[in-house]
Amino acid sequence: MTTGAVLAAGACAIILSLIGAFRGPRCWLLALLASSLTALAAAGWVLATGNAWEWRSAFLIGGESVHLRLDGVSALFLALLAVVGGAGAAYSREYWAERAHPVSAQASRGWWSGLVLCFGLVLLCSNGLHFLIAWELFTVCAYFLIILDGQRRDVRAAGWLYLAASHAGTLALFAFFSLLAARTGSWDLGPMREHAELAPFFWLALFGFGVKAGIFPLHIWLPSAHANAPSHVSAILSGVAIKMGIYGIVRFSGWLPTPPSAGWVVVALGVVSAVLGVAFALGQHDLKRLLAYHSVENIGIILIGVGFAIVATAHGQAAWGALALAGGLLHVWNHGLFKALLFLGAGSVLHATGTREMSRLGGLWRAMPWTASLFALGAVAISGLPPLNGFVSEWLVYLGMFDALNQPGAAVVGAIPAIVLLAMTGALALACFVKVCGVVFLGAPRSPAAERAHECGPWMRGPMLMLAAGCVAIGLAPFVFWPALHTAVGAWRGTWTDVPAPESLTMLGLVHMALAVAAVIGAAWLWRRAHRGSLARALTWDCGYAAPSARMQYTAGSFAGIITEWFAWILQPERHEHRPEATFPRRADFEEHTPETVLERVIEPCARLVMWVSGVARRLQHGRTHAYILYLIFGLVAVAAMTMAWSE
Amino acid sequence: MTSILEFIARLAVWLLLAPLLPGIINKVKAWVAGRRGPPVLQLYYDLARLWRKGVVLSTLASPGFIAGPAVAWVAVLAAAMLLPLGPLGASLSFRGDVILLIYLLALARFCTAWAALETGSAFEGMGAAREVSYAVLAEAAVITAVLTLSMQSGSLVLSAMLAPSAGTGAVLLAVGLFIVLLAENCRVPFDDPNTHLELTMIHEVMVLDHSGPPFAAVLHGAAMKLLLFSILLVQAVLPVGKLPAAAAAGALVAGVLGVTVGIGFVESLLARAAFRRVPLLLTTAFLLCLFALLVAWKGGAA
To answer: Which residues in chain B have Cβ-Cβ distances shorter than 8 Å to A395?
Structure first.
């Protein structure tokens, strides 16, 4: 009952913040943070105790009584929403301040509160109709947040693409929930695994939620929306909005029966998303677009975990299924934390330099030491390196897959490529983040804008620090968070509640702590040693080149060149080059651009075909009445002919 | 108390013995070429000299330029402590430690490449790009080798995985891992540790601007990584864990020496491969490990 009271308080606070959005930033932020804290408390309580909360209203909305439920699965996502929602709101106080954005600052606050409220409703609603309403409302709120800076053409285009793609997904969800309601006779949702005839509906859910989650190749809306939205919005889009798609997949693969091949399909989609997401990321020159493609990659890693859990269900093997699922779900948290951190860091860079183009940045560490170090921490975490949180979740997924490997059964065939490709994804992500950190923060500034950069203020730094602290906490003490994962796994599959914590998780945490301490001591020691003797500053030696310039540095494109060449078959990079020719060469230039292949090479040609067919069909309608009468006559003759043919 | 003493002894073995390997390799190379060559202990002298020297930092370098080599060194050492040493076993072993070992080496790679990019030098950027790109293929080969060992032993603990021999596929695995060893430790035919001024290098070019104690940390870390890969290779192939303690220790030492001498011969007899060949060579290593995996999988059932 306490959970209900806390949630009610949170709901009051978020509604207050909705009103406060139009009064001023201070009371809005206060109410929003209060709602975040209450939501976190409620979710934490459910995760810690494992007591799900359920409530049914006596009144009806849309002919259905409101049915709310907070169990392990939804509490896990609610906790993430609370953290990222609160951090993004605090960040926007300075990043999207009244003074710089007099018109859209208020809109930003209002839609933000609305978005957080609708996310919460999606997670709590246990009624198909209300779920759909909340789902649609959050899509719309997110649209208005994406186009906050609507004067720019590419922002409007990105918003439109997002809206169109989202509605393609929502259409599938309409079909999914209606068919479900038609078969079960009620809009009410809950565990119904005994109805085997519901299994094929899983494909509809996978498509509908997959569009939102950004699974490759349904991710077409994701890069441009994430890149063009204001950075605090990108953070919540990447941290929470795409996780709603994952929530849907996890929720309904837990509640509904799944077709026999569902697990493998999800694993395959996960592997493809992971590898190609990072490959596309390597080809990007735009900092935020690059981060957006990494969301596709991380969604892939989450899906590998979830997919193996579905496979394990089919094989009736709880032990490794639970490990893989726990890894996937922990990665939901982890990705939410470090990707929000990275987007906020990218926002600070954008705020300080006015550009997202990596080839115009460089050497920012000097002006922005806080942003640089926090971004670096996020980069280590997202590359899945110990001792931070990204490694812990990938490690759990690996454990699950290796255990699947050593069990007799068909799982071996799938586990081998998944493990190899996950390892390659890790190495590719590392390559990509070395590139980002190196090109943006290290070396010499490549443009005057980068030279004039300045550090962000405390309101932007604070949320980043908090998210970074989350990454460190999960990395160093993963065993503390196991009970939460255990509750969530138990809520997903009731029979998996007796799976014990992997003993080595504690060991891993201790090793991580020792590693962190040793790294700090080692760095400090070497620092002292280097500063004890003579320490001289000189021009970069670079094999004795006397006059290096910032333009001679390795660029993002050249750094990733080797790998993007391997993936040229899918990246389809567009190159324009003028080589220096003749004895006195004129201008020489080289330009490379990686398009969104699926959108530009598949979806857009199809769309053009549809437009062409429509254009041809439109010629029939020209406004000349006598021709319309002719159509009518033809129509009547055709109907008459058909009727006669039918009767014979 | 004994465990602490044992831990210190193990640490000493890693720290003190690692710089021996590059010395042996150089001796072998000199012997093949008919030269006298530098003393076996040359790297020790170099390290001592560098540790006492002052530092020249690039004007562009941030504190990460010094922290990078330090963290990379710590990461390699931590990976080394996870690796069992024949009859001694590992100082720390738990389920999934093998994955941690691979990712610790990746952490070292991240830090080295980070430090390389600090200087804004085109050379070092190029080296870092090559290092992280080719590591993708090396990683695939290593994880496939781990899969083979895990399938062979039915375990995910390093000490149990490395105890038996790699079975029928041992030769395939040995060659595959040896190629990865050469690539990861910047040896010929991937890289030429003798040159410093060529555009054709991977790893060596990343550390061009390091000097003094940080450079000592880089060199020592590289030596430890070489020892780590040699021990891993020997234990993966030979049934070290099944032998009596003395024989196991002898086999391990002889194996590591054999690998080291082998590297020396490879460097003497082969030229550095063209860069276009590097991915091909690493893919070969991956395929060899994959075949070893298939042997372990299907052969195990028979």
So the answer is: 96, 99-100, 103
Of B55, B132, B144, the CB nearest to A530: B55
Q: Is residue A271 part of a domain?
A: no
C-alpha A472/C-alpha A239 separation (Å) is 17
Looking from the CA of A271 toward its CB, the CA atoms found within 13 Å total: 19
Size of interface A-B (CB pairs under 8 A): 254
Which residue type does A434 have? Answer: V
Residue B288: band (very low, low, confident or very high) from pLDDT cuts 50, 70, 90: very high
Q: How many angstroms away from the CA of B254 is the closest CA of chain A?
A: 31
CB contact under 8 A, B113 and A416: no
pLDDT at B232 over 90: yes
* Spatial separation of the C-alpha atoms in residues A112 and A163, rounded to whole Å: 17
Confirm whether A164 is domain-assigned: yes
**What is the rounded CA–CA span in Å between residue A113 and residue A52?**
26
Residues of A in contact with B135 (CB under 8 A): 427, 430-431
- Of chain A residues 433-452, which have a CB less than 8 A from chain B? 433-435, 437-439, 442-444
Do the domain assignments include residue A341? no
Cα-Cα-Cα-Cα dihedral sign, residues A149, A152, A156, A161: negative
Of the pLDDT bands very low, low, confident and very high (cuts 50, 70, 90), residue B242 is confident
| Shortest Cα–Cα distance, A31 to chain B (Å) | 40
d(CA A248, CA A238): 16
- Rg, C-alpha atoms of chain B: 19
Is A77 part of any domain?
Answer: yes
Mean model confidence pLDDT for chain A: 92
Asked if the C-beta of A320 comes within 8 angstroms of chain B's C-beta atoms, the answer is: no
Residue A133 is part of which domain span? Answer: 1-259
pLDDT tens digits for range A205-239: 999 999 999 998 899 999 999 999 999 999 999 99
Q: Tell me the CA distances in angstroms from A628 to A614, A619, A620, A641, A642, one per residue in order.
A: 18, 12, 9, 20, 21
Domain boundaries, chain B: 42-301
What's the ipTM?
0.95
Give the number of domains in chain A. 2
The amino acid sitting at A57 is S
Q: Which residues of A touch B132 (CB under 8 A)?
A: 427, 430-431, 434-435
The two structure tokens encoding residue A24 = 């001023």
Which of A130-144, B6-20, B154-168, B284-298 has the least mean pLDDT?
B154-168
What is the number of other CB atoms lying within 10 angstroms of the CB of residue B70? 28
A547 interfacial to chain B (CB closer than 8 Å): no
Cβ burial B167-196 (10 Å sphere, 16+ → b, else e): bbbbebbbbbbbbbbbbbbbbbbbbbbeee
CB A336 within 8 A of CB A83: yes
In angstroms, the CA B134 to CA B144 distance is 16
